[in-house]
Amino acid sequence: MIGLGTMGAGIAEVFARAGIGVVAIEVDAAALSRGVGILDASLSRAVTRGRLTAAEQAEIRSRVRPAAGFSDAAAVDLAIEVVPERMEIKREILAELDRVCSPDAILATNTSSLSVTAIAAASKHPGRVIGMHFFNPAPVMRLVEVVSTVLTTDGVAATVSDLARRVGKTPVQVGDRAGFIANALLLPYLNHALHLLATGYASRADIDTAATAGIRLPMGPLALLDLIGLDTALSIMEVLHGEFGLPRYMPTPLLRRLADAGRTGRKAGRGIYEYPNSGSDDHQSGNEHPPATPRTVTLIGAGDDTEAELASAIAAAGINVTRNAAHPSDLVLIAAEAGRPILPAALAAGRPQQAVGLHLAGKLAAGSLAEVVQTSVSSADAVQAGAALAVKLGLTAVRAPDRPGFLAGTLLYPHLADAVRMCQDGYAGPADIDTAMKLGCGYPRGPFELIDAAGAAAVLTGLEAMHDAYGYPEFAPPPLLAEHAAAGIAFADGSRSAL
Ligand code: 3HC
To answer: Can you list the positions of beta strands (E) in 13-112?
Structure first.
């Protein structure tokens, strides 16, 4: 293992836990001891959580041998470099490894943003150089992207994939393209979330809550940016933008500013959130809405089941419900529908200042996401009352503007479109893309499973509404999505989309 930072130490732990000896190489003794400290802290944490015994910890630890220098790599079968993302450093390391390693050894790079091909070309034997891309935290996330280049010798990807399986990971084999699968999909979505924050579309806590409570992702995009590091995220976005050139990949200015300011995330104790005890994850979040529940609510809906369900839930919470906008009430609540603005109904009710929408991302169930939709005329009191009402109903409330997709859809639809475009480009098929996002980023369902569950037509409608409203090319629905919507076929069944 060349480089024992957070990722290198995590990957070393993965191999050592699987019974494989690791030679750990760092630039100097201080860096080496810091790296070993990261490994020790992770193993101790597993012992504290009852996942390892002290004896197992000692055994795993004994398999990691801090090395005096590159010459200790002479006998290894595989060398993985996990050093900073600078081509000149990677090239130097490849030259050293060429010098000391046996000709049969495989040389892997964990690069997340540089071209594996360009790194391989620095080796005298580029056929044995391959990408082996792990995910943070490496001991937990199960994906390894195995990245072959046009120079990679036949069989190397299969050998590395077998090894990944041996250490408990799931390999997905891909070609060398910026961001591979997971980063090419994840980073534009995170960047977009930061753009929504920067433009005042929604608050920090609400953006993260929309993703966790609405899309059921393990972390919100802003908390995840802090975990990945804003500097790392910026460099990946720059590489994606350089390779694909599309506006979707342009780093949002706030990303660059935060990285420039050294507010790089958890590792710096400060990023989008503050981390008073560096290394802890106690970022500020949660429901910030004050509890000022309205006593009487005018409910306006489409006369469907959602409206009826809402009416009985509100009544069951001890709040009077009226359907007549002429009756006095504390709040006009419009049962919001995806893809349809609430402003016309708010104006029709005659008191648009007192009107907000309530959009349920899923079922009306405890903890599920409720988007409190505010128009340009909704008063602050009405928005607070709407949020308090949602909390009273046991829902998780976020505030969202009266724009297509509200908040969760605004985050999700372009992300799903990116996945469809990747498939349309022939880079990876739905199954591999779903596996990558589930095992690399902890998604409970992959992008194509999400599309199939919602229906391609619903995702298409959401994207079309965003595209019509903003005119941005990044919201243009990919033809493959439109074809699935028109034919009514799921990606799980679609033969044309199965690469
Ligand atoms: N190191 C080692 N183990 C860790 C860890 C770390 N840094 N963080 C968490 N864990 C372990 C815990 O010990 C725990 O193990 P246990 O169940 O055996 O006791 C388990 O993970 C779950 O941890 P927690 O209960 O503390 O917390 P959560 O359930 O909230 O899970 C999470 C934490 C696994 C980080 C989860 O939030 C998640 O999956 N987040 C998404 C992370 C993600 O998307 N990663 C990919 C980023 S992109 C990338 O890395 C590519 C790069 O190129 C940029």
So the answer is: 22-24, 64-66, 78-81, 106-109
- CA 58 to each of CA 11, 27, 39, 62, 85: distance values in angstroms, whole numbers, following the listed order: 17, 25, 12, 6, 32
49 Cβ closer than 6 Å to some ligand 1 atom: yes
pLDDT at 243: 96
Q: Are 148 and 117 in contact (CB under 8 A)?
A: no
Catalytic residue of the set 145, 371, 464, 474 = 145
Indicate if 183 belongs to the active site: yes
At 288 the pLDDT is 54
CB burial of 217-244 (b: ≥16 within 10 Å; e: otherwise) equals bebbbbbbbbbbbbbbbbbbbbbbbeeb
Residues facing 22 on adjacent strands? 64
Q: Is 31 left (phi over 0), alpha (psi -120 to 50) or beta?
A: alpha
Judged by DSSP in three states, 95 sits in helix
Q: Is the pLDDT of residue 129 over 60?
A: yes
End-to-end C-alpha distance for the chain, whole angstroms = 34
